Amino acid sequence: MTVEGxxxxxxxxxxxxxxxxxxxxxxxxxxxxxxxxxxxPEGERVQHPEYDIDLSPDELRGLxxxxxxxxxxxxxxxxxxxxxxxxxxASLLGQxxxxxxxxxxxxxxxxxxxxxxxxxxxxxxGVDPTNLLGMFRGVNHGGWDPTSNNxxxxxxxxxxxxxxxxxxxxxxxxxxxxxAVIAYFGDGASSQGDVAESFTFSAVYNxxxxxxxxxxxxxxxxxxxxxxxxxxxxxAQGFGFPGVRVDGxxxxxxxxxxxxxxxxxxxxxxxxxxxxxxxxxGAHTTSDDPTRYRLDDERAAWEAKDPILRLRTYLEKxxxxxxxxFEELEAESxxxxxxxxxxxxxxxxxxxxxMFDHVYADGHALVDEERAQFAAYQAxxxxxxDK
Amino acid sequence: MTVEGxxxxxxxxxxxxxxxxxxxxxxxxxxxxxxxxxxxPEGERVQHPEYDIDLSPDELRGLxxxxxxxxxxxxxxxxxxxxxxxxxxASLLGQxxxxxxxxxxxxxxxxxxxxxxxxxxxxxxGVDPTNLLGMFRGVNHGGWDPTSNNxxxxxxxxxxxxxxxxxxxxxxxxxxxxxAVIAYFGDGASSQGDVAESFTFSAVYNxxxxxxxxxxxxxxxxxxxxxxxxxxxxxAQGFGFPGVRVDGxxxxxxxxxxxxxxxxxxxxxxxxxxxxxxxxxGAHTTSDDPTRYRLDDERAAWEAKDPILRLRTYLEKxxxxxxxxFEELEAESxxxxxxxxxxxxxxxxxxxxxMFDHVYADGHALVDEERAQFAAYQAxxxxxxDK
Amino acid sequence: MAVQKLPLAKxxxxxxxxxxxxxxxxxxxxxxxxxxxxxxxxxxxxxKDFGEERVIDTPLAExxxxxxxxxxxxxxxxxxxxxxxDGFVFPAYDQIVTQxxxxxxxxxxxxxxxxxxxxxxxxxxxxxxxxxxSPEALFAHxxxxxxxxxxxxxxxxxxxxxxxxxxxPVIFFxxxxxxxxxxxxxxxxxxxxxxxxxxxxxxxxxTLAAYGxxxxxxxxxxxxxxEEGRSVExxxxxxxxxxDFDAVQASVEKTRRLVVVHEAPVFYGSGAEIAAxxxxxxFYHLEAPVLRVGGxxxxxxxxxxxxxxLPGLDRVLDAVDRSxxx
Amino acid sequence: MAVQKLPLAKxxxxxxxxxxxxxxxxxxxxxxxxxxxxxxxxxxxxxKDFGEERVIDTPLAExxxxxxxxxxxxxxxxxxxxxxxDGFVFPAYDQIVTQxxxxxxxxxxxxxxxxxxxxxxxxxxxxxxxxxxSPEALFAHxxxxxxxxxxxxxxxxxxxxxxxxxxxPVIFFxxxxxxxxxxxxxxxxxxxxxxxxxxxxxxxxxTLAAYGxxxxxxxxxxxxxxEEGRSVExxxxxxxxxxDFDAVQASVEKTRRLVVVHEAPVFYGSGAEIAAxxxxxxFYHLEAPVLRVGGxxxxxxxxxxxxxxLPGLDRVLDAVDRSxxx
Lengths: 387, 387, 326, 326
Ligand SMILES: Cc1ncc(C[n+]2csc(CCOP(=O)(O)OP(=O)(O)O)c2C)c(N)n1
Ligand SMILES: Cc1ncc(C[n+]2csc(CCOP(=O)(O)OP(=O)(O)O)c2C)c(N)n1
Ligand SMILES: [Mg+2]
Ligand SMILES: [Mg+2]
Known about the structure:
The complex is a heterotetramer, with 2 copies of chain A and 2 copies of chain C. In chain A, 44% of the residues lie in helices and 9% in strands. By secondary structure, chain A is an alpha/beta fold. Chain A has 2 domains: 2-9 and 24-345, Rossmann fold; 355-382. In chain A, strands 1-7-8-4-3-2 form a 6-stranded parallel beta sheet, sandwiched between helices. In chain A, helix 4 packs parallel to helix 5 (119-125). Chain A is globular. Chain C is α/β, with parallel strands linked by helices. Chain C has 12 helices and 14 strands. In chain C, the strands form 3 sheets. Chain C has a 7-stranded mixed beta sheet, with helices on both faces. In chain C, strands 9-11-10-13-14 form a 5-stranded mixed beta sheet, sandwiched between helices. Chain C has a two-stranded antiparallel sheet with strand order 1-8. In chain C, helix 3 (62-74) packs parallel to helix 4. The longest helix of chain C has 15 residues, at 8-22. Chain C is globular and about 60 Å long. Chains in contact: A-B, A-C, A-D, B-C, B-D, C-D. At the C-D interface, helix 4, helix 6 and helix 10 of C face helix 4, helix 6 and helix 10 of D. Bound molecules: thiamine diphosphate (2 copies) and magnesium ion (2 copies). One thiamine diphosphate (TPP) sits between chains A (117, 156-158, 186-189, 216, 218-220, 280, 284) and D (31, 60, 62, 84, 88, 91).
């Protein structure tokens, strides 16, 4: 994964890809995106006039460790899918900095609304990674308690969680709390009406919510140009709140920008849109075959911008971590992989009757009737065996 | 209707009304709206650096005539509703300039997608005004042939027509035609997901469509601040196309701005959002009671900006029309009112069986069955009478 | 004081007021619910008394209304959402069907979504398109939702109380053409169960089952039938999900004939479900097939045709005759 | 050449290709239908051959997809829209129900909306949430829509041709778990009518009626029943709106027993409509109530439970036994 390379290191500009039909006039609107960066792909620490961050060596190592362990977990899940232990997996490969940076910006009392790919954010929230695997294995639809880590269930219907986040944030404001809410979504999701409506509601009610868009350049097979002809972060302005584009492969910048947006929310200044400019290094999910729609070159260029590699370079250069530390982390990685593997294999199938559970909180006569019928039906086979 | 007055003549700025919760940071985004104006409320012709228009006396009189006749028609419909001839009426009072200005900017081959209030645009398209009344009388749901005047049916589900307009415009582009499409919608509608999606689609496909938002300050009882905290025209920019705010009570400015946006569409430069800043002088519909939610003062201030009055002042001052001409128009108005009144009263109720017509173009077995059953059922009463 | 004669809309208003008073977590949200008090005045005066933080005028976006209500419920609130008219619930349909209905199960019960979606529904008020729909079957088919409809002021008051107290999402269909009908409300009564049917007229020859706006019509039909010597029982189903099949079965075992009446189109309507299940339960009791009276498979017609489209007295009596002719 | 053995998905692909070739107004649109060829490859190779102007990758917004398809249809095009999975049609539900279904009637027939909405539907493929829904009843209840579902490759090919040629909006449900099942397609045959049922196995003791993915299951059940000496007739309904009640009636008048099988939840499902209407039509013929086998009133379960949730061979045979026991 840690590939050296000298390929183009500057983030590709959306405008370059704007479809032929897009006009000059439109092009003129899409000024050079202001990409916030604090750590270059080469591992150089750079300054930014608006965003800065001062982290202790411990904190820096912590971010590195988070990214490495998240990647390890993700790789394990991918291979568990190949082994048939999971039905599907949506890999976050390449998006570790966006997720760890934003995830580590959160306070415990902040609330997270993820898509289906925020395994790194879940990690930061302290969600046991094996909890994430139930739905991909097909034993539940999520099933964890969102309130125990303030990490909502994964949402598959694209964009719909942005409204839940907005409503939750409206509630936070009503409570007079100074917590904030973060809603994750993708570049593709930006086209959904629900996302626009969440922008409208959050702006009108001045809700303490951060919209964190991971622009990983692809929505399955569709490049971002199929969703917009100007950089996505600009979308916010027309709704009356700021948008900012951050280097999504730079964990420091993601942390700084998200923290600032969260603080803004806490101060009662309302929503912010953060566009983390990153790349989906793998397939959309394990069911997908990206060779049908994208060129290897593109991936190679992004490998040179790997979020983990650049922080390693920096840690090494600045002597913030030694070989022993890296080795220890490697061992920790392996044991995480092993633990996840074992946990998944031990995950029992649900009881058949479980499908009638939790349809309603207060019960429903028909569910009771069908449950009883089903039980009798199943019992009829047992009876048959007896005879 | 033509009320003199010295009340504040400058358009009220949205920002003034921004709810207390909106923050300074957001306020900073909402710069002074650039309101395009060519004719002041006092009837002074002013210049604008970007938009100008040169109209013959005939054309100027024509615009005035359109507005007067539209207002007369509208008043007639309101009184027909009071007399019980219509079930409901949605008055355009106060929005004549926005509708006539934009409507007269269109070419015959352009296509219009209205809401339920574009009686003035319908007039410009040559739709017989009585055609508009069927749905308000309850004899049909519209029923006119949209293709005969390139004026689509009224759409009641807020915002949905903006997508139809976008699709239609995509088709125009596919055909290689240089026609344009215009979609009308309101300030309230701007919050609907469909409107945002139409912005996305039209931008991505560079569709030749003009989004014409009549910001009449109210969505039934809700002021525009319940929909947005920045001026609506700014919404477009985040989708990658220009937005412009025009004095919606200035028929010249509305004509100039819409014409320019249509030309842009024809040139293949894609969509434009026009926000016509105007005012709903009457109730939302005849079912509504605006005294419950807004103050008379506000209406009074807007009366001073009346779109018809200012053009009349200008025509008189410049001696472009004499008393005889105004009198003749008055007579024409009265005869239009009479014609509409008579036409509505003569409008027959639909045949009962008509409810089974046009459910499908190619027929449907169940509709046939139900039609036959209904006919037999009705016949059973006739039989009963015979006996 | 506890017993008042109130129009149905006013009973709902009192019920909302009670809920807002009792539970600080209850919120009322929707388009024009504030100063205007809703287009039917069901929320009249509530914003004035409970403030903009609890009675919330929302942007004009139904998906947004329901979606943010879900978020508010996750934060511990109990939002009561108003959809302005039946025909405008569909932009919110995705949020209702894929999120509101399923989230409790998705979390294996670890979260609850006490959201009430109030929808004025049905025709008969001479309205324009989209203002007279009866889409209840489109919600009742969806597991995770409860679907109810009161037919009178007392039920309006109490069923709304119960819906708000329920920890499940409830789609609350209000019979808009009965908003102005007055009925007694005893605000200190002990209410019946939310999902139980009620026998509103006893009879022995045939059962008419209905809910919402059609209950009154069925009572009228039963009265006319009585003059003709026929004893018709009328059931107010009150709940379309779950349906109180036990009550219908008990009635049909007695009367042996059933006619279901609703405004919604018959095709794939709630009458189909009732007919199918009751036929299964009462196969040997039924002397006639379950008959259905409802809307046709056609878009709700313009106002001047709605009388023909909607079930009326004659059509109900015709079905009664046809059933008794078996 | 005219007769080929094709997987169902490939038959659809050939049908789209044929339509694109024959009529320049036909468009294919949806998420990932271009280079990827759709997540199920139903549109494989079409963009390559017909270009981006006719095979259109859309933004990720289903309401936008259907809404713009309506506009394109108004401009004279015949869009064939792909919804990626059954569970993602709901953001488009408003456009489908309030616009697509009603616009022809709203215009008193003066405009037509030849739009096909293709939806891969149903379970049995081990997928995550929202990827296994069977929402056909939610469309069939709505006047103005036609709703069909092929069960085999030949119907897939021909019914899609006919749906595209239809001047009405057609919701075209594709049985995704049968995509890989091969069947003969005669591209020069004279197809049957789009909305007529087909008897796929003759029998005398009982009728099984199904559509889409459940037809194959019913054929298997009939084969097992035959071994047990029971002659089961199997009807492929093919169309859920309209439903070919005449064909069901004719079969039931012969067999006197009917079991309807679908994956969708039984409660308010298409089986209810069929049971209600056929009971009315065949009241004196039926020796048992119409029985229904389908999904439960619960969200579609996680993959490891779907076998229990879905109708399987045993559940169908159980219903056959129960019916014959009357
Ligand atoms: C409403 C809806 N439509 C379609 C899908 C199918 N789908 C799943 S993921 C996806 C692409 C999402 O792209 P993006 O938002 O960029 O997120 P990413 O997968 O890149 O993280 C699509 C179309 C869905 N889940 N929900
Ligand atoms: C989807 C939908 N929701 C609600 C309504 C009810 N409704 C009709 S008009 C209206 C307000 C529209 O305001 P705006 O868009 O500003 O247009 P205006 O009436 O001011 O011209 C509302 C809420 C509707 N017609 N459609
Ligand atoms: Mg993406
Ligand atoms: Mg308005």
